Amino acid sequence: MPTHAQINVPKLGQVEVPTGLFIDNEWVESSSKETFPTINPATGKHFLEFSHAKQEDVNRAVKSSRKAFKTVWGNNVAATERAALIHKFADLIERDADKIGALESLNSGKGVRIAREFDVGDSVACLRYYAGLADKSHGQTINHFGNEKFVYTLHQPIGVCGQIIPWNYPLMMWAWKVGPALAAGCTIVMKPSELTPLTALVMCDLAKEAGIPAGVINTLPGLGSTTGDAISRHMDIDKVAFTGSVATGRKISIAAAESNLKKVTLELGGKSPSMIFNSADIEEAASWVAMGIWFNSGQDCTASSRLYVQEEIYDSFIHALTAKAKACAIGQPSDEFTSFGPLISETQRDKVLAYIESGRSEGARVITGGQKWEKSNGGYWVEPTILADTNSSMKVVKEEIFGPVISVSKFKTEEEVIDLANDTTYGLGAAVFTNDAGQQTRLSQKIDAGTIWLNQYGILHPSVPFGGFKHSGIGRELGTYGLEAYQQVKAVHQNLTQTM
């Protein structure tokens, strides 16, 4: 099949986009010549066919990345040179922000304004952050041994890294993985989601234009069960980083252990609680919670999907949140006004609707939403949904829905809500809304989650670490911790006077 295709993009017209494999800075077909289809989530219709990378293609990409690591990247290049190339890469993405945002919107269903200003903007910021950090990581000198010896540590790149990213933030998750890996000196074999491979492939031409050497970023579209499994099991990949479901994270961990025991970082699911106390500003808290659950149509690992409201303000808060739900800018992705687009697939939409029906059958009260958007017209929208009067035994409270559905329960005391918030297998994010500073401090320490927001929700930054407790993952992304995840520490003992 050809490695590129022409598509019609709203406001841009006909655009040529890549659909092949990117190996050694060249576009190539899959060795099997096989393809897989993608669907436009706003229409339910066929979008594009992409090459399906198989084991032979993974082998070729890994060989290319290993060669690059040994010759033109890794410890062979000054960190300042890597930084300059990453900065140039970020500049090119910013230059093409309109085009990239439009393609991200078309492939994923995001509102085009959100895709351009948030997803592209934050991806550029992430690359620039790691470009600035590239030459600021160093080891220690350990001069504790008198005249006997001198010891120091080196922070060195791990090597060839497999990266497997999800469909909910295709570009931003790409940046979260690529930025620190490049800054550390690692080379990359990237597998985007089979639902949203387009923008990761678009990045390849910009990487080449920026001057990043061949083999440093190889990109292989394909299915998780084939391409993803081949990456996870490859004997010459040193690390695999994955963002996605707990079930797939388990499979990747097993594959990594059964192969060469490669290092693994996992950012998995969440069922994040928001706790609203009597002292909170109800309108302000409702705005943050609404953003937390309905941004990206609820397709967010940190979505504020469990809501606990102190009983005295329970009814008032639900009333305020209902107004926010009805104000969501639901619409077509190509509309600049839209901030709430379709879910990614028919399967995901039907899964979300089944959860809503489960909540109804178990006694939850549907305050608003709970159904397909009336103007879906073949697309995969589900209306912003509030399920009130829920309890911890309900499926909608226990399981990650990954859609625009929030379950609301009441509580009486601080001690009670701590137990409710921690009664989950997940531990990615949590929020506390209270004007009691002591209460903020106590709950920040007692809630089992990798990120705690106080009187806000969902705001992340490239300089701040992100990751989860319990089933929500292993390791951290972003910040200096994200760079360390692509490095290994070597201790060097230099003998000065010791003799055997």
Automatic annotation (TrEMBL):
The active site is formed by 267
Q: Which residues form the Aldehyde dehydrogenase domain?
A: 27-492
Lipid biosynthesis as UniProt keyword: no
Stored CDD domains: ALDH_F1-2_Ald2-like
Instruction: Kindly state which keywords UniProt assigns to this record, in alphabetical order.
Output: Oxidoreductase
The molecular function GO annotations come to: oxidoreductase activity, acting on the aldehyde or oxo group of donors, NAD or NADP as acceptor
PROSITE patterns found in the cross-reference section: ALDEHYDE_DEHYDR_GLU
Which InterPro entries does the protein's record reference? Ald_DH/histidinol_DH, Ald_DH_C, Ald_DH_CS_GLU, Ald_DH_N, Aldehyde_DH_dom
Q: Which family does it belong to?
A: Belongs to the aldehyde dehydrogenase family.
| The protein's name | Aldehyde dehydrogenase domain-containing protein
Q: Which organism is it from?
A: Kwoniella dendrophila CBS 6074
Taxonomic path: Eukaryota, Fungi, Dikarya, Basidiomycota, Agaricomycotina
